[in-house]
Design a protein that fits this description.
The chain is mainly α. It has six helices and no strands. The protein has a domain at about 40-130. Helix 2 (about 65-75) runs antiparallel to helix 4 (about 95-105) and helix 4 crosses helix 5.
C-alpha cells in the first residue's frame, strides 16, 4: 500500500520568517548581515519590556535589594556579546534566578524575581544593540482573517457564536 502525504491546510497564514529567511543585504557601514528575530524571540523581548515597565512602576528608590539583584544579574550577563545569544542564556537562566532569589527572598517583593530577571536581560539587550547593529525586530502580527475576502465574520467581531455552532 503506497504511503500518502497529507498537508494540513487549516492555517492559511504565510510561514513565519525565521532568521535564515530574513537575512538581508549587508548594511552600507558594516559587512555584517542583518538578522531578523524569530517570533519566539520577539515575544521574549516583548516580555522583557513588560517586566521592565512593571519594575519601573512598582519599585521605589528604597528598594535597595531589588535594585542590587537587578544590577548583579546584569553584571553576570556582560559575558554575552551577541544579542541573539541572550535568548539561549535566558532559556537556561537558573543561576541568574538563584542569584536574584538569594537577594530578595526575604523582602516583600520576592514575587518580582522573574520580572527582575527579565529586566536584567532587557538592560543587557539594550547595551548590545546600542550601536544599531542588533537584529531586526519583527512587525506586529496582523489579526487573522476568517473570511475568504479578508473580512472577519460578524459573529467573530461581536464575540458571539453563529446559530450553526450553538449547542443543541
Amino acid at each position: 500500500m503506497p504511503s500518502m502525504h497529507v498537508t494540513r491546510t487549516t492555517d492559511r497564514r504565510p510561514p513565519t520568517p525565521g532568521p535564515e529567511q530574513c537575512l538581508m543585504s549587508t548594511q552600507s557601514h558594516s559587512a555584517r548581515p542583518i538578522h531578523c528575530l524569530s517570533r519566539v524571540q520577539q515575544l521574549t523581548l516583548t516580555t522583557w519590556r513588560l517586566a521592565d515597565t512593571k519594575l519601573q512602576r512598582v519599585l521605589n528608590p528604597f528598594s535597595v535589594l531589588e535594585q542590587a539583584a537587578l544590577h548583579a544579574t546584569l553584571a553576570t550577563l556582560r559575558d554575552v556579546d551577541d544579542p541573539v545569544a541572550l535568548f539561549g542564556r535566558h532559556a537556561a537562566a537558573y543561576a541568574e534566578l538563584a542569584l536574584i532569589t538569594s537577594l530578595i527572598s526575604a523582602t516583600q517583593r520576592a514575587d518580582l524575581s522573574y520580572d527582575i530577571l527579565d529586566s536584567a536581560f532587557l538592560l543587557r539587550w539594550n547595551e548590545l544593540i546600542a550601536d544599531g547593529r542588533g537584529p531586526q525586530e519583527l512587525p506586529p502580527l496582523r489579526p487573522r482573517s476568517t473570511h475568504p475576502n479578508g473580512q472577519r465574520e460578524s459573529w467573530a467581531r461581536a464575540g458571539s457564536r453563529p446559530s450553526s455552532l450553538e449547542k443543541t
